């Protein structure tokens, strides 16, 4: 499917939702307007922020720092989302059709999210910010770990998850409530715990909604669809 075809289908979907539920249509229209105004303010202020088609700002977005923040098409922001950069060449890249619910980013090099991801109230950072060496922790010249973070496509990150420097999460994987990810994980797995570990494969249609090895979510997703306890 081409970019033009995706944009056309997205607009048709938004219009259909508006006609089916006028109140929802007003909410979507207001979020689209706020998205346009936010981009305009960033342009005026010289903030390095770009967003694609149909950017919908339902909550509050704070873009800070000297780096670049780029959103794809059909991105939704709910709650308070803070993509913060700490270097001029730092980049936060968010793919198409991503939903974020109070996500927090701390970026020195690069954080990238594939298309169709869902993020609840999570923290993602590609740097430790301070050295782990006790003798140099308060020194500006102390060695500090910096490593890119990458989320694949269609990844769901549940509430209170922490994703640390150098982590890659494979396509379709789910990171459950409160997990702390300090290493990378493959595609199509369910990840829980501190430290995080794989507890099951993503269930197939034949297996049903929840795999036998893992527990069902304890709370339903929020209105944005991102929040919940996997």
- Known CATH architecture of one domain: 3 Solenoid
End-to-end separation in angstroms reads 31 Å
- SSE string: HHEEEEEEEEEEEEEEEEEEEE
Continuous helix count:
2
Helix content: 10-25%
CATH topology of one domain: UDP N-Acetylglucosamine Acyltransferase, domain 1
Largest sheet: 8 strands, mixed
How many strand units? 20
Radius of gyration: 18 Å
Shape: flat
**CATH homology group of one domain:** Hexapeptide repeat proteins
| Average pLDDT | 86
Specify the CATH class of one domain. Mainly Beta
**Structural class category:** alpha/beta
Beta fraction: 25-35%
Q: Which strands sit side by side, in order, in the main sheet?
A: 2-5-8-11-14-17-19-20
In oligomeric terms, what are we looking at?
Answer: single chain
Outline the low-pLDDT stretches: 214-221
Please give a handful of descriptors for the protein shown.
8-stranded mixed sheet; UDP N-Acetylglucosamine Acyltransferase, domain 1; 6-stranded parallel sheet; flat; 230 residues; alpha/beta; 2 helices
Describe it for me?
The chain is 18% helix and 27% strand. The chain is α/β, with parallel strands linked by helices and 230 residues long. The protein has a domain at 48-201: UDP N-Acetylglucosamine Acyltransferase, domain 1, CATH 2.160.10.10. The strands form 3 sheets. It has an 8-stranded mixed beta sheet. Strands 1-4-7-10-13-16 form a 6-stranded parallel beta sheet. The chain has a 6-stranded parallel beta sheet with strand order 3-6-9-12-15-18, with no helix packed on it. Strand 19 and strand 20 (197-201) form a beta hairpin. The chain starts with a helix and ends in a 29-residue tail after the last strand.
């Amino acid at each position: 499917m081409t970019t033009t075809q995706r944009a056309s289908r997205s607009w048709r979907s938004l219009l259909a939702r508006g006609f089916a539920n006028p109140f929802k249509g007003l909410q979507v229209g207001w979020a689209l307007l706020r998205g346009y105004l936010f981009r305009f303010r960033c342009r005026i202020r010289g903030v390095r922020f770009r967003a694609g088609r149909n950017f919908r700002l339902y909550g509050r977005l704070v873009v800070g720092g000297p780096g670049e923040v780029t959103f794809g098409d059909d991105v939704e922001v709910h709650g308070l989302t803070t993509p913060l950069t700490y270097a001029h060449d730092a980049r936060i890249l968010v793919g198409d059709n991503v939903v974020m619910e109070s996500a927090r980013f701390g970026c020195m090099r690069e954080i990238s999210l594939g298309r169709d991801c869902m993020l609840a109230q999570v923290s993602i950072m590609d740097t430790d910010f301070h050295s782990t060496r006790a003798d140099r922790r308060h020194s500006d010249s102390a060695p500090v770990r910096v490593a890119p973070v990458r989320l694949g496509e269609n990844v769901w990150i549940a509430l209170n998850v922490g994703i640390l420097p150098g982590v890659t999460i494979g396509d379709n994987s789910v990171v459950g409530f409160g997990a702390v990810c300090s290493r990378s994980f493959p595609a199509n797995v369910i990840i829980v715990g501190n430290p995080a570990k794989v507890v099951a494969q993503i269930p197939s249609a034949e297996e049903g909604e929840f795999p036998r090895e893992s527990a069902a979510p304890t709370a339903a997703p929020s209105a944005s669809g991102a929040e919940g306890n996997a």
